[in-house]
Specification:
It contains 10 helices and 14 strands. By secondary structure, the protein is α/β, with parallel strands linked by helices. It has a 6-stranded mixed beta sheet with strand order 6-7-8-3-9-10, with helices on both faces. A hairpin with a 2-residue loop joins strand 1 and strand 2. Helix 2 packs across helix 3 (104-117) and helix 2 (89-99) packs parallel to helix 4. The longest helix is centred in the middle third of the chain and has 16 residues, at 163-178. The chain binds adenosine-5'-triphosphate (ATP). Adenosine-5'-triphosphate binds next to strand 2 and helix 1. One of its GO terms (molecular function) is ATP hydrolysis activity. Belongs to the ABC transporter superfamily.
């Protein structure tokens, strides 16, 4: 089902933390909420979950306006993790699943699956407090999805995970997407968002700068990211038509163009003496777009 948020607003006294935010997250899709520290991501999640009362706005589930979403169909990974430190990993997972009204046998099966999937088999009987931070994070993730929620909200799910475990998490999120869940997550890591999300919202100081499909956002800028490798000089490339900037790293040049069309002229110019090792024209990375839209614009 689709989660729709319309004109959602939260004021704390005179400070507006979330300002008329609208977004739509569909089932079987992954939605990324991106923004700098304090942009309003957690506040948005808390309002969707009714842990905070919105000042204004409407929340819809499957097209119907809802006052409070049914907690049993939501999985939530909060920013501040909260588990029972003295409880064994497996018991913890089953306990939270029981709270969501699931039966023990189904939970056991699901718990076995995810414990194995996240490489925690040897920690099954360990007390949660004895686990490393990353492993505790994985247990908390299993807790948030053990009852097979239709709506999964993950606040910074990748924080504290090493690259191997981040990869495991990515695969798990994709699997939940395949199962048809509606998934929203926040992250500062643009590469994760770029890889996983179908749709995203760029938040700045509580306001949405963009909300929609990633490919729509990327096509707003066009393919202006040109990578070249060959016998060139930086100064020579900088003079070519439409080149806004040139940088060089490990004999690979990166050119930022003002317009996608300029690439054709540059191609003719750089290949006039024949073979070059690399010429690739791409969209800006999400990180570059984010810096342009939200940051200082130095891409
Ligand atoms: N209970 C509160 N009372 C007053 N201000 C609050 C409260 N909760 C959040 N804020 C403010 O609202 C703004 C948005 O905070 P929020 O935690 O939603 O940001 P965030 O995007 O999740 O940031 P981060 O990436 O750092 O987690 C911040 O300026 C924060 O200080």
């Amino acid at each position: 089902m689709t989660l729709t948020v319309e004109q959602l607003t939260k004021k704390f006294d005179h400070f507006t933390a979330v300002d008329h935010l609208s977004l739509e997250a569909e089932s079987g899709k992954i939605f990324g909420l991106i923004g700098q520290n304090g942009a309003g991501k957690t506040t948005t999640f808390r309002m969707i979950l009714k842990l905070l009362v919105p000042t204004d706005g409407v929340i819809k589930w499957g097209g119907e306006t809802v006052n409070t979403l049914d907690r049993d169909m939501i999985g939530y990974l909060p920013e501040e993790r909260g588990m029972y430190p003295k409880m064994a990993v497996e018991d913890q997972i089953i306990f939270f699943g029981r709270l969501r009204g699931k039966n023990k046998r189904d939970l056991k099966k699901e718990a076995d699956y995810w414990i194995e999937r996240f490489g925690l088999s040897d920690k099954r009987r360990a007390l949660t407090e004895t686990l490393s931070k990353g492993n505790q994070q994985k247990v908390q993730l299993i807790v948030s999805m053990i009852h097979q929620p239709s709506l999964l909200i993950l606040d910074e799910p990748f924080s504290g995970l090493d690259p191997v475990n981040a990869e495991l998490l990515k695969k798990a999120i994709l699997e939940l997407k395949e199962r048809g869940a509606t998934i929203i997550f926040s992250s500062h890591r643009m590469d994760h968002v770029e890889e996983l999300c179908d749709h995203l919202c760029l938040l700045q100081k509580g306001k949405s700068l963009f909300s929609g499909a990633i490919h729509e956002l990327k096509s707003q800028f066009g393919k202006i990211n040109l990578t070249l490798r060959g016998p060139f000089m930086e100064a020579q490339l900088a003079k070519m038509p439409g080149v806004l900037s040139v940088s060089c790293q490990n004999d690979t040049f990166r050119l930022l163009l003002s317009n996608e069309q300029d690439a054709k002229t540059i191609f003719n110019e750089v290949t006039k003496n024949g073979f070059i090792e690399r010429f690739s024209l791409d969209y800006l990375s999400l990180e570059d777009i984010f810096k342009r839209k939200v940051g200082d614009g130095n891409v």
